[in-house]
């Protein structure tokens, strides 16, 4: 009996094909380790998994660079759980900024449409 299919970033085939009704998994490789995540936990959205992996890689890469510039040291001297919490905070901050920007753009669009309708 085999387990669920596992997809990896960069896999040539679909990353999360269902296997016998069992939710397939996607493997996120980050920070020297791997995390197997059931695709259903990702809302079934398998098309964005490569982008998710890229964002994770970019986030930790940026953090390593900033840590080296600001602390004159290696980020690997920080314990793993602290480093991962900082990564989560970094990503949450990015989400908040994107949501704020989207709300501003929506509001601006609504204002523009209202002005156009009033001028007719």
Provide keyphrases for this structure.
120 residues; single chain; alpha+beta; disordered N terminus; flat; 3-stranded mixed beta sheet
The profile of the biggest β sheet is: 3 strands, mixed
Helical region count?
Answer: 2
Shape field: flat
Q: Round the mean pLDDT to the nearest integer and report it.
A: 74
- Report the helical percentage: 40-55%
Low-pLDDT residue spans: 1-14
Strand content: 5-15%
Strand arrangement in the largest pleated sheet: 1-2-3
How far apart are the termini?
68 Å
Topology order in helix (H) and strand (E) letters? EEEHH
Which structural category do the helix and sheet elements fall into? alpha+beta
Characterization of the model:
Strands 1-2-3 form a three-stranded mixed sheet, with helices on one face. The longest helix has 40 residues, at 80-119. It starts with 5 loop residues before the first strand and ends with a helix. The protein is flat. It is an alpha+beta fold and 120 residues long. A hairpin with a 2-residue loop joins strand 2 and strand 3 (33-38). The relative contact order is 0.09. 52% of the residues lie in helices and 12% in strands.
